[in-house]
Each structure stands twice: as structure tokens, then as C-alpha cells.
Design a protein that fits this description.
Elements (H helix, E strand, L loop, with lengths): L4 E4 L5 E3 L6 E6 L2 E6 L10 E4 L9 H26 L7
Antiparallel strand pairs: 1-2, 1-5, 3-4
Length: 92
């Protein structure tokens, strides 16, 4: 499994993608992009992908919480795909 990390260019904060319930990944023109669902920003803007080495170790408790967030994101993704299949369009 590949672990991706993003850095908020404004604050310098780094986190693993999927640890925050507002994280979203998508592919545009063959490029993986990050999008923060809470503030609407992403790569190409106020965030950038970074190497994991600067993040440090993840506690077991944080890993369990992150797994819960990833499950919630997967549920959200499935809902979006279901709506898209029905011809519904989600607006920002």
C-alpha cells in the first residue's frame, strides 16, 4: 500500500492523506491530485505532496482513527458514484 502525504504550504502542516475526513484524491489528465473538501484547496494551490520521511511515526491510536476516516471517505465515494450513475450532479 502506498502512503501519500501532503503539506499545507501556508501553515507547513503535514499529514497523511486519508487521516483527515476532508481528504480527497482524484485523477485529472493522468495526474493524481489532492483536494481538501473542507476548504476547497488542493495541489496546484495551497497543498503539495511531500515525502513521508518528514511526517514521523504514526501511533496505533492515530492509525485506528485514520482507518475510520478512510472507511468514511470510501462510503462517501460510493455515494457520489451512485449519484453520478443516476445522472445527478453534485455542486460545490
Amino acid at each position: 500500500m502506498i502512503k501519500l502525504y501532503v503539506r499545507d504550504k501556508e501553515t507547513g502542516s503535514v499529514h497523511r492523506v486519508g487521516d483527515d475526513p476532508h481528504d480527497c484524491l482524484y485523477v485529472m489528465n493522468g495526474v493524481v491530485c489532492y483536494h481538501n473538501l473542507q476548504n476547497g484547496d488542493g495541489t496546484g494551490g495551497g497543498y503539495e505532496f511531500v515525502e513521508s520521511g518528514i511526517y514521523g511515526e504514526v501511533s496505533e491510536e492515530d492509525e485506528k482513527l485514520a482507518e475510520k476516516y478512510r472507511a468514511n471517505l470510501e462510503h462517501f465515494r460510493q455515494m457520489v458514484m451512485e449519484y453520478a450513475g443516476q445522472g445527478l450532479v453534485l455542486m460545490k
